[in-house]
Amino acid sequence: MAVGPLVFLVATLDHRIVKRLHPAWLVAVAAFVALVGAAGFRATPGVMIHPLHEEFGWSLGTISVAVSINLLLFGLTAPFAAALMERFGIRRVVAYALLLVSAGSGLTVFMRHSWELIALWGVLVGLGTGSMALAFVATITGRWFVKRRGLVTGVLTAGGAAGQLVFLPVLALLVEDRGWRTAALTVAGAALLVVPLVLWRLRDHPSDLGVTAYGATGDEPPPPPPTTGAASRALGALRTASKTPAFWLLAGGFAICGATTNGLIGTHFIPAAHDHGMAEPTAAGLLALIGLFDIAGTILSGWLTDRMDSRILLGWYYALRGASLLVLPMLFAATVKPSMVVFILFYGLDWVATVPPTVSLCREYFGMSGPVVFGWVFASHQIGAAIAATSTGLLRDRLGNYDLAWYIAGGLSISAAALSLLLFRTRRAAPTAPPVPVPA
Fold it and tell me: What is the SS3 assignment for 202?
């Protein structure tokens, strides 16, 4: 009897809350959910490598090639997607990207040959997820936020970790109980369900709703309209940025970041744990736990980015990651030991904590073209991830274990810390680099 008035009261309160909120926060929520949906497919490689190997007889190296192409396109698509968002709008690009992810994941259930895995899992889904990569985060925060920009960057970046957290244990159980095809269809459906929300809540510019960015004073000049095609703007940003030492230091450090996260841990942690007798659902749960701690770590990193020098933050993040990877080979066992839980907590806090300070530095050095330049820096992240995914799979096929891969990754992470601190030497010269006429 009281259901009708209760529904009316809830709807009224919801309307009042939405009315009080700045629209930027609703856009951020829609972007967060889209990132979670895209993360679903990116969570699948680790739980599907062994099932694909067992069913089709493909080597881990062959399957890793498909993963590498996915990671590579995930990065290389980002700067062009950022430019496409400037020309055609964020909402339209993200909606089409989710459809690509859904189609690529769903069609894998019909594949019979390894080239089909590469075409669907590698190319189609790589293009879709790449259009919702971290350059999408930089575009949203650059357009919609002046205050709390670092914090929102951290929260949106954590969306990928949240997607991993939500999907990994479920996918692992689905693969074990019902097979990998059910898991692939689940991801396809999840990506498809996000499309209506994107079309409903995601908006391209604050001016579309008659407001300014959150925290804007009204004195900021409006972004200039795009005067060239998306490819020209993306390549122009790369040409200008590549003439500065800051770009290469950021890109080099972020390439190592990709190699030691998506390429190594994200792709090979579950198979490595399986080599030591650990059940795949248990290993997937540990990887999901990394995602849980990463949410806290990335949000904290965004908060720190608003308050500390981003170069110092990157130096600490990479150095601590390197130390943790050097001890990882000693922690694997058939059961979960307390030392492994400590590694998961420590590594999870650091997983993509590097993103908010990197986005901030791209904006500091490259001004209005920062989101597109960050797209290229992120492309280097995925190039590193692709190289690591394939080379680690080949090392495992040749040596029979992953130990050497963990040691190499630890050393590379420590070198990334050094690259980050070298950015102090470019601090005065970098802001004089001529800006690329691409709106942020």
Answer: coil
Helix or strand run (H / E) with residue 309: none
Query: What does the alpha-carbon distance between residue 371 and residue 362 come to, in Å, rounded to a whole number?
Result: 7
Rg of the chain over Cα atoms, rounded to whole angstroms, equals 21
Strand-pairing partners, residue 145, are 214
* Amino acid, res. 26: L
pTM above 0.90, yes or no: no
Higher-pLDDT residue of 427, 400: 400
C-alpha 434: how far from its chain's center? 29
How many helices (DSSP H) and strands (DSSP E) are in the chain? 19, 0
- pLDDT for 34: 83
Please state, in angstroms and as integers, the Cα–Cα distance from residue 338 to each residue in 20, 287, 344, 359, 407, following that order: 46, 15, 10, 35, 21
List the structure tokens of 269.
Answer: 């942690």
How much of the chain exceeds pLDDT 90, in percent? Answer: 17
144: which 2 tokens? 């919609």
What domains can you pick out in the chain, each with its CATH number?
23-205+230-432 (1.20.1250.20)
* Interval 100-140: pLDDT, tens: 888 888 898 898 888 888 888 888 888 888 888 777 887 88
CB atoms within 10 A of CB 75: 30
